[in-house]
Amino acid sequence: MAETLTLELVDPERVLASEAVEMVVLPGVEGDFGVLPNHAPLVSLLRPGVIALYEGAKVTRRFFVAGGFVEVSEQGCTVLAEGAEPVEELDRAAVEQALKDAEEDLADAKEPSEEQRARLERAVAIARARLEAVTAPQA
Amino acid sequence: MPSLKDMRTRINSVRATRKITSAMKLVAGSKLRRAQEHAEAARPFAAKMAAMLANLAAAVKDQGEAPPLLAGTGRDEVHLIVVATADRGLCGAFNSSIVRATRRRIQELKEQGKTVKLICVGRKGRDMLRREYGDLIVEFVDGIAGKRRIAFADAERIAQKVLELYEAGGFDVATMVFNRFKSAMSQIVTFKQLVPVEPPEAAAAGEGVQAIYEFEPDEERILAELLPRNLAVQIYGALLENAASEQGARMVAMDNATRNAGEMIDRLTLRYNRQRQANITKELIEIVSGAEAV
Q: Label partner for B110 (CA 20 to 30 A): which of A138, B16, B38, B235?
C-alpha cells in the first residue's frame, strides 16, 4: 500500500469520515486542489462542491459539501464542512426539486435587500453544485 | 377526619401521579442518552475549529488589524446575555438555577453602571425573567429543545441574531448562560463569553510548535468566514450541553418524585387500614353493647 494521509471530515453534527487515504481532492474557493501525503501546511476556504477520496487512481468515496474550511498539517487533512452529505445518499429528484425551489425563491423575492439577495443566490449556488455532484459521472 | 372514601380517592390519585412521574423518568433517561451522544458527536468539530481559530488568530495578530468579532469594540458598556433554558418545566432546579445566576449577573452589571440586554432561548427562562427584566429582552427563541435533535440550523439562527445586533452596534460583550453537563446528577451553570472571541490559547499551547501555514485566500478573508461560523458552533455546543443537562435534571427530579409518591402511598395506605379497622372495631362495640343492653 502506498503512503497515505489521514483525512478527517466533520460537520457540526457528526464525524463523516476519519480514515487513511492516498489522495483527497477538495473544492477550494480558488479552484479544486488535491492533497497528497506530506503536503505543505495549508488553510483554505471551500466552495460548494465535491470532496473525493482516492485510493490509487480510483475514487473510493465522494462527499458533497456546501462550504467550510480545510486545514492541512503534518497530522493530516481536516475538513470542517457545512452541510456535508455522502454523494450516494443524495436523491436526484429531490436535488432537482431543491434547485428549482431555490431559483424560484430568488426570482420571487421582491426588492430583496443586499443581504437577502446574497443569501438566496448562495442557496441557488449550493443547490446547483449539489445537482452537479449527483449528475457527474462516478469516476 | 377524612372519610374512608376520601382516603381511597387520595391514594388512587397519588398512584396515578407516580405512574406519570415514573414514565417521565424513563423517557428522560432515554432522551438523556441520545442527547449525550449528540453532544459527544459535536465535540470533534468544535475542538478542531478552536484549534484552527487559534492558528489563525496567531497569524493575524502580527499584522495588527483584527476583525471586530475577535478584537471587540474597545468598549465595555453594553452587555448582551444569551440565556439558554428549557421550554418545559418539571426538571428540578434546572431552569431556576440558570435564571438565578442570570439575575445575579444582571445586578452586578447594573451596579457597575453597564447596560444589559437579553436574548432568551427557551420559554421558561423568558417567562421567569419577563416580569423583572421584560424591558431588557431584545429577542426570544423557542421550540429548540423540544425536538428529537437540535439542528445546527437553530444555532445558526441564534448566531445570526447576535451578529446582526453586533454589527448594528447593539452591544460590546456577549455572554451565554447555560448548564454544563457534568453528570446526570449534577449540572453546572456556566457563563461563556461569545463576543469578543476569547482566543483559545489552551488549544494552541497543547499542540506545541505551530507550522507556518499557507492561506488560501488570505488570512483576513478566512478569519472573516470563520469567526461567525465559530459563534454558531459555540452556541450549538452550549445548546447541546444544555439539552443533555435538561434531561439529566428531569430524570433526577422525576426519580425523586416517584420515590416520594411511593412513600406517600405507603403512609396513606397504613392510615387507611388503621382507620378501616378502627371503624370495624367501633361498629363491633356498638353491636355488642347494644346486645348487652337488651
A: B235
| Strand A58-65 with A31-35, pairing | unpaired
Q: Answer yes or no: pTM beyond 0.80.
A: yes
ipTM at complex level: 0.78
* Interface touch A29/B226, C-beta < 8 Å: no
The C-alpha cell of A127 is what? Answer: 443547490
Candidates B122, B118, B134, B135; CA nearest to B96 is B122
Beta bridge partners of A35: A24
- Give B101's Cβ-side CA count (13 Å radius): 20
Q: How far apart are CA B23 and CA B31, in angstroms?
A: 12
CATH number at A66 reads 2.60.15.10
> Could you count the other beta carbons within 10 Å of the beta carbon of residue B236?
25
Q: Is the pLDDT of residue B104 over 70?
A: yes
Q: Does B8 touch chain A (CB under 8 A)?
A: no
- Element of type H or E holding A78: strand A76-82
Q: Which of B229, B230, B233, B239 to mutate to test the interface with A (most CBs of A within 10 A)?
A: B229
Domain that holds residue A45: 5-87
Please confirm, yes or no, whether B91 is among the known catalytic residues: yes
Question: For B120-142, b where at least 16 C-beta lie within 10 A, e where not — what string?
Answer: bbbbbbbebbeeebeebbebebb
DSSP class per residue in B14-43? HHHHHHHHHHHHHHHHHHHHHHHHHHHHHH
Q: Which CATH number fits domain B43-250: 3.40.50.1980, 3.40.1380.10, 3.40.50.300, 3.20.20.150?
A: 3.40.1380.10
The secondary structure of residue B136, as a DSSP letter, is G
Query: In which band, very low, low, confident or very high, does the pLDDT at B33 lie, cut at 50, 70 and 90?
Result: very high
